[in-house]
Amino acid sequence: MSARFRFVSFILITTLLLAACAPGLATPAPASAQPSATLVKTATLQATQPPPQNIIPPSPSATSMPLPTATLPPTSFPAGLWVGAPTYPGDSKPGMYFSVDFDPAVWELQEDPSGLVALANQQILGCVMATSAGRGLPPGLIVDHESRTIGALDFEVNRVFDSGGKLQFVTYQGGDVNVYTSFEVRFQDQPEVCVQAAEGLLATLGSIPQPAVTPTVLPPVGASPTP
User: Fold this and answer.
1) Which of 24, 64, 140, 150 could crosslink 60 through cysteines, CB 3.0-4.6 Å?
2) 105: CATH
3) pLDDT at residue number 135
4) CA geometry: angle at 152 spanning 149 and 158, to 5°?
């Protein structure tokens, strides 16, 4: 190999070594790398999706909401309820009336000879329970007094007999925490049956606020039962 060939070979090898080691001669990297397909797809989805909305829960429907209730004063009495002013207003709370439940098929509201409201039994002849204001007793009558609980209330019970021991009528005084009132039970026959039926009424005695009602014309005691 000639000296000239060796010199040319040396120059080529040297040039290649310098090119490989010099940083300035390396292939420059791109100014910015291109995002991968996954990143491009994610960015596109994020850009096209609408921003989240404020979610407002639906309002409950009218049928699902509880309706407010209101207690209104009664304007009329339902069938089977006797309401009246207590006979002892000084021992009762102002504005409170007594109330008594009854079966309209057995008892009927009527007016006694004194103009007072009374309950007349339609199955026991002459059996009537009315309010009583109290009065003196004629001579010869005997009173048998006792205190007794009827239903949930305490009553003062007066059984009045004639001189022969025949029961004439029975009075009851009692009430709840709001009213104190008196009733009288009279009869023509079957006195004990009538008294027992009347005490069934007294067992329901209660009280309600004084209602405003339209006056009702009642039949007199002893009238034929209402059809």
Assistant:
1) 64
2) 3.40.1000
3) 72
4) 30
Average pLDDT over residues 47-74: 41
> In one letter, which amino acid is 97?
Y
Tokens in use for 79?
């069938």
In this prediction, residues 35-64 reach a mean pLDDT of 43
Domain annotation covers residue 122: yes
Is the Cα torsion angle 42, 47, 50, 52 positive or negative in sign? Answer: positive
Is 89 inside any structural domain?
yes
- Strand pairing partners for 182? 173
Lowest average pLDDT, out of 12-21, 33-42, 150-159, 208-217, goes to: 33-42
For residues 16 and 148, give the distance between their C-alpha atoms in angstroms, rounded to a whole number. 132
- Report how far residue 142's alpha carbon sits from residue 85's, in angstroms, rounded to the nearest whole number: 29
Number of domains in the chain: 1
Instruction: Show the domain range for 192.
Output: 81-134+141-209
pLDDT higher than 70, residue 49:
no
- Residue 105 forms part of a structural domain: yes
Q: Which residue has the higher pLDDT, 14 or 60?
A: 14
pTM score, whole prediction:
0.62
Q: For residue 159, is it within any domain?
A: yes
With H, G, I as helix, E, B as strand and everything else as coil, classify residue 83: strand
- Report how far residue 101's alpha carbon sits from residue 81's, in angstroms, rounded to the nearest whole number: 5
